[in-house]
């Protein structure tokens, strides 16, 4: 999944308006923010294998620290604890942790059985939605649209940046998603890892947008 993870972050603003969208982007994609770094360091590994599934050419054969069930639970606790240490808000810290873990749940839906349950990576699971390109696009696209709708109901733009900055982000995410589906596979693993680190740009973009939007309830009170 790609835009589906961002959809969770967008939709969570409806139930946790005080958490910045940038923070929610970090949480929703935290496992995939760590993964490219671990690839560059040689801690985890992937193969580029066109035809591995109809949806993606990547063979995720070794990533237990970031994408095992145990790893996802660990990183959920870590990021939730970091948020609590900074903000001292227990409910929002639990929400951040839950958003981190949502990444594994969505990956479990889409991946073939390549998600380890434990750090040893011995037993792997996955429901394999990626075996259907059309099914994946329908499900993930639907989640993304739902996330956008919830976000727009939860927030209102303060200015034109809040409006066009948000729609620009949504358009870029959708374009990258389609490019990943219909474009050529990555040339090599190093290029894949370097490109993966660019996900931090979307985090910065989300923080920027958040400063130009306010919660819908606050906007209604002000009027």
What does it look like?
The structure is a single chain. This protein has helices at residues 3-12, 21-28, 30-41, 64-67, 69-87, 90-110, 133-154, 160-182, 189-196, 199-210, 216-222; strands at residues 45-48, 58-62, 115-116, 124-125, 155-157, 213-215. It has 223 residues and is mainly alpha-helical. It has one domain (3-213). The strands form 3 sheets. The protein has a two-stranded antiparallel sheet. Strands 3-4 form a two-stranded antiparallel ribbon. Helix 2 (21-28) packs antiparallel against helix 10 and helix 5 packs antiparallel against helix 6 (90-110).
Helices and strands in order:
Elements: H1 3-12, H2 21-28, H3 30-41, E1 45-48, E2 58-62, H4 64-67, H5 69-87, H6 90-110, E3 115-116, E4 124-125, H7 133-154, E5 155-157, H8 160-182, H9 189-196, H10 199-210, E6 213-215, H11 216-222
Antiparallel strand pairs: 1-2, 3-4, 5-6
Task: Write a brief caption for the model.
With 223 residues, this protein is mainly alpha-helical. It has helices at 3-12, 21-28, 30-41, 64-67, 69-87, 90-110, 133-154, 160-182, 189-196, 199-210, 216-222; strands spanning 45-48, 58-62, 115-116, 124-125, 155-157, 213-215.
